[in-house]
Amino acid sequence: MRESKPETKISEEKKGDSISYRRILLIESVIAFTFYCGLMQYNAPPFWMWGKETWGFVLLLFPYYLLAFVIFGAASIVIYEIFRSIRFHWRQGD
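RESULT FIELD:
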């Protein structure tokens, strides 16, 4: 069998840093969407029984859902960068 080059192998210390921004945004979007659905369903009938007023309420809150997604996504990226820099400096012995 052919051996791979050492540069292409993932070292043990780099395995934990493999989480990507896309994965973080996906997790945060699921959290924000769950929160939004919970807010919408708090005092509402099932969606197939919604009238014009309820759909208007949905459209009214949709920009707030997008804003929450942007805030959650930005906060998660900032927290990820802070933790990554702390781990990097901790490994370097600073």
